[in-house]
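Database export, one record per block. Field names are fixed; values are copied verbatim from the stored entry.
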Amino acid sequence: MKKKTNLNSLIKISLLGAIAFILMLFEFPIPGFPPFLKLDFSDLPALIGGFALGPVAGIIIEFIKNVLNIILHGSSTGGVGEFANFLVGGVFVYVASWVYHKDKSRKKAIIGLISGTIAMTLVAGLFNYFILIPIYAKLFGGLNNVIGAAAAANKSISSLASLIVIGITPFNILKGAAVSVITFASYKKVSPLIHKESLALEQQKLKEKASNI
């Protein structure tokens, strides 16, 4: 029975990872933000999976989508962008679903999504400032090129610090808010489909226990 449960969860995680990869392909820029910051809704399946199957499942879904993206779509950043996507998305999904699993209620879902957005925004800011953008700059002609590309979209951006404060931070807040709203609105409608087989397995366990009494 335990093997059936594990296999069932693995299938669901794999399916959600594939859906997340597909959503990752439909990214689009937002006016006023640097062109390398594009919005997509690929964190949605990971959040739903994290809420339904636990925080670790959500992180695995984030990992699957990024691996699939590199294998099937290729990487224009040498894997740096995908690593950043996994790290930032993983923080968002893990924190949100961890809080939700403390007490599966609408209130905890809201608190979890807000906490996840805040955590993602902070990690994204620090990670980009100290690690990602310096690496990205080395790969693509220096920091001035990165700042210049960002300044073309927003003239207020003139340094790495202003890129973080004016560009990356509000972008992640916007992204977190958008994905959170969709997750909150859709989870209760989608979760019965994810839990359907699990409920059937639990009922079967109860029947087996009753027959052994």
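Remark 1: Confidence is low (pLDDT under 50) at residues 199-203.
Remark 2: The CA atoms of residues 105 and 111 lie 10 Å apart.
End of record.
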